[in-house]
Amino acid sequence: MFPLDPKTVERLAKIVVDQGGPYERTGRDIEGLLRNAGWGDPPDYDGSPRVGWLVDALSERDDARTDIERFLCRLCDPIEYLEGAAAAEDVRRAVNEVLELERLEVSYVGGRPVVGELGSNGTVKVVLHIEDVEQRLRTLIREEKLIQMLVSRVRESQFAEASGSYLLALFGIGSFVEGLLYSVLTSCYPELLREGFTGRKGKIPADRAGLELLLDTAHDRGLVQLDAKDFMRPVREFRNYIHPRRQFETDFTPDADTVAMCWTPVQALLNDLDKLVVSQAANEETV
Asked: How far apart are CA 223 and CA 62, in angstroms?
């Protein structure tokens, strides 16, 4: 799956350029596509043939799975096109035809593109790879001990899912998201530690802020988009089943599909936070 085969990269580059087609991009447009995908230090277009230039740019990052996924998501994002969703869907179909042999597919969650792996039955599953998660956390969090703790939450959730302990997997996913948001928010906004979070009933001490309040605050502060917050709702609600009485009253029995449904909004959330890192880096360069 990753790194992508050179032929796959070349075919994707031709889709991006779309020479003579309705979505043709200039060299500067392609450079902008990579920048808008959230690439740190994207290459400057040098005036050479567009397909070859983009192939080189993608090949240089063939071991950076996150950057390639960001590129694929931005390529299929409706916001990238004047025609909106209709154009993005045309491009997504062409992209997925190329990605099929790599056992990958771009799908939409609440209108947002995410990259998933194709299972043997044709279903798409978003998979968080431990090395990738750890690398992304290092750009968001400074404390090594905390990074390792959050990575452990992901790893344990995946172990629980693989062993059929689906409820435990859901608890782990919710715990990971809560720890991630708390760490990022209190790092970006230290005053939250001193003054607390603002909830529906007034100020809440930082150590009492729950997942719902953390999501609301992250959205209010522009760290995550509305759809990422909304599609995190199942993760938040399923985590409440840690109380046996609640599970008994609702007769809730999660399965593999339940867990798979929760990994996708986690990926969308991480994608939003990745953009925060790129934005902070750009601001530092202008200071």
From this structure: 28
- The answer to whether 104 touches 95, Cβ cutoff 8 Å, is no
Distance, in Å, from the CA atom of 17 to the CA atom of 231, rounded to the nearest integer, reads 33
Which residue, 98, 53, 45, is CA-closest to 76? 98
SS3 readout for 102-145: HCEEEEEECCEEEEEEECCCCCEECCCCHHHHHHHHHHHCCCHH
Under 8 Å between Cβ of 114 and 107: yes
Which amino acid makes up residue 97?
E
Sign, CA torsion 106/109/110/113: negative
pLDDT tens digits, 221-244: 988 887 777 778 878 777 777 777
Q: What is the pTM of this model?
A: 0.70
Contact 215/224 with Cβ under 8 angstroms?
yes
Quote the radius of gyration of the chain (alpha carbons, Å).
20
Q: Which neighbouring-strand residues pair with 199?
A: 202
Model confidence pLDDT, tens digit, residues 177-224:
999 999 999 988 999 999 999 988 889 999 899 888 999 999 999 888
Record the tokens describing residue 286, joined without a space. Answer: 């202008």
Distance CA 130, CA 250 (A): 33
Residues 32, 20 contacting (CB under 8 angstroms): no
Could you list the beta-strand ranges (E) of 185-287. Answer: 197-199, 202-204
Cα 152 off chain centre by: 19
**What's the rounded Cα separation, in Å, for the pair 86 and 218?**
30
- Cβ atoms of 157 and 167 within 8 Å: the answer is no
